[in-house]
Amino acid sequence: MPLLPGKTIIRNGPVLGGQTTRGNALGGITGRADDPSAIFFNPAGITQLEGTHLMGGLSVVSPVTDVQVTTPAGPLTTTTERNYWMPPHLYGTHQVNDSVWAGLGIYSRFGLGTEFDDAWPGRFNNYNAVIQSLTFNPNIALKLHDKVSVAAGVSAMWFDLKLERKIPAPGAELDFSLTGDSIGYGFNAGVRYEVLDWVALGVAYQSTVKQEVEGTADIGIGKSDASGDVKLPDMLFIGVAVNPVEKLSLEAGAIFTGWSTYDELKVKIDNPALLGVGEVRSEKDWDDTWRYYVGAEYALNDAWDVRAGYTYDPSPIPDHTVDYLVPANDRHLYSVGCGYKWDSWSIDLSYTYLSIENRTVKGRPEDGVFDSEISDGYAHIIGLSLGKEL
């Protein structure tokens, strides 16, 4: 099919905000850590919860991005087709006694969805990528003092991927796909300290998780077993929460993500005759990043809370390796939300508008990447959680 200037439809959806609806609205709750979703942000905070609590929900993420690619035939503007991703979350906490709490979290820590038309110019780099993960995370929290709590846990993460691109061949194009999954293991820890009656400091850590992915490489004319290692990054959460007046709480914080663990994508092909090579390697060289947030929550009355937040989330992808697997840049998140309580129930709603900064991409023909402009990127994120005190 000849490539002509015009418009091509793609679908591109990074998975975001799958950990908690309240956290979506506030940007983070590491210092507050006062509902069951503290298991993700800072499990030491569950010592604030008396009895047994359950919370479950999901986020709906709908992204849109324009990409203008400069091809030998001229410029081609690609416009994303609206797509929907729904990362879930489920949390449970139980007070064992006056000093010990147990908690369990099930959530999506990492994910990605990027789908292009399979005839678009960048198809030799990527035309479909789906990465999913689900973390199972039990924790134990201890109240050491009225003002100090600590926690630790272990995690098992299911990781699944599907990557598809085209491979040029004499007189033809071949479909290359890589599918595989694995389970990796890690740990987490947290501490919460009430510096004053109206000031609390939270710090939490989630470890790296090594995934030894086993799967299949398929080029249409043959298949081979394939494998590769992916080391998913560690995360450090820091937050300070203050209550300057009775009904108002504020929090500011930062989240470090060690993306430098993602230095390359290397896949070993068990049957080298299939592709003519024993491995497929792509340099990534991602950078560590700090994500910054501020949030405010105000209690209108005993039943209703209103919330707002802002987050700045810089991209970890350097200019020399940015490609069409993640066609994005630094992001700004503007959030609002509310919570309603009745009897032993609670419901939380949030809306986030995510704005992606424009980006110029320098072509790398050896990687199937053209001179490109990424622009007008944004996403709508809607969160919903339902909670119950047993």
Could you give a quick summary of the protein structure above?
The chain is an all-beta fold and 390 residues long. The protein contains 2 helices and 22 strands.
**CATH class annotation:** Mainly Beta
CATH architecture title: Beta Barrel
Low-confidence stretches: 1-15
Question: What is the name of the CATH topology?
Answer: Porin
The name of the CATH superfamily reads: Outer membrane protein transport protein (OMPP1/FadL/TodX)
Please give the share of residues in helix: under 10%
Structural class by helix and strand composition: mainly beta
Number of strands: 22
**Compute the gyration radius: what is it?**
22 Å
Strand content: over 45%
Mean pLDDT: 90
Question: Can you describe this structure?
Answer:
The chain is mainly β. The protein has one domain: Beta Barrel (Porin). The protein contains 2 helices and 22 strands. It has helices at 21-26, 38-41; strands spanning 7-14, 52-71, 74-80, 88-95, 100-107, 112-116, 128-145, 148-169, 172-196, 199-206, 209-218, 223-232, 235-245, 248-257, 264-269, 279-283, 289-299, 304-313, 331-342, 345-356, 359-361, 372-389. The protein has a 22-stranded mixed sheet that branches. Strand 7 (128-145) and strand 8 form a beta hairpin. The longest helix has 6 residues, at 21-26. The chain is globular and about 70 Å long. The termini are far apart. Residues 1-15 have low confidence and may be disordered.
